[in-house]
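Forum > Structural Biology > Help requests

Title: Can anyone predict the 3D structure of dITP/XTP pyrophosphatase?

Hi all, first post here. I have the sequence for dITP/XTP pyrophosphatase but no way to get a structure on my laptop. I'd be grateful if someone could post the structure tokens.
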Amino acid sequence: MKDIVIATGNKGKINDFKHIFPDYNVIGITSLLPDFDVEETGDTFEDNAALKAEAASHLLGKAVIADDSGLAVDALDGAPGIYSARYAGENKDDAANIDLLLKNMAGQQNRSARFVCVIALSEPGQETKTFRGEAEGVIAEERRGENGFGYDPVFYLPERQLMMAELTADEKAEISHRRKAIDQLKEYLSKE
Ligand SMILES: O=P(O)(O)OP(=O)(O)OP(=O)(O)OC[C@H]1O[C@@H](n2cnc3c(O)ncnc32)[C@H](O)[C@@H]1O
Ligand SMILES: [Mg+2]
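Reply #1:
Sure, ran it for you. Structure tokens for dITP/XTP pyrophosphatase below:
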């Protein structure tokens, strides 16, 4: 089985990647470098994904991918966006982030939103490449579902009439923003 190293400390993302890459041995960076942590100082998902992938690739001397992602809500002018993980504070608390989102959306009629995922590929001696995937949905008024992570319990998928958190991991892997970004990465690798 081929290895693929992902520069993330987020267990929910690692679980998503395992279902997107069933034929690969998915390795989270913290099992190789327990103290790995990169400050996300970029202004875009692309910049932050590249920062994480390049830092890990330089430390390991091999190809690494990273994921910078988040939720963009139209009625909030694209917030929380690149700040999705730390929306309610630096301690990255998914429950607190959802509470704040529901509070900021209270009484709001326009609830359209999208998940964005940018995957960066950094390889020694090569320019970093980025690939973007998006998934459209609607911000629900309350939580439902136990699967997934982050904002999945309040991200409603109208065509399925389910929350993202009500999909199995395999179902999420078929339609998610993360899957769409990875499809583009795979297409690039197949032409390389
Ligand atoms: O930077 P790494 O170490 O990869 O982990 P992180 O959790 O800090 O990840 P990000 O900086 O990319 O922030 C993304 C946040 O956006 C949210 N998010 C991203 N993808 C999601 C998904 O598939 N489902 C639900 N929420 C998601 C979730 O709250 C994440 O913490
Ligand atoms: Mg992060």
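DSSP finds five helices and seven strands in the chain. The pocket of inosine 5'-triphosphate (ligand 1) is lined by residues 8-10, 13, 40, 67-71, 84-85, 94, 97, 115, 148-152, 176, 178 (CB under 6 Å).
Shout if anything looks off.
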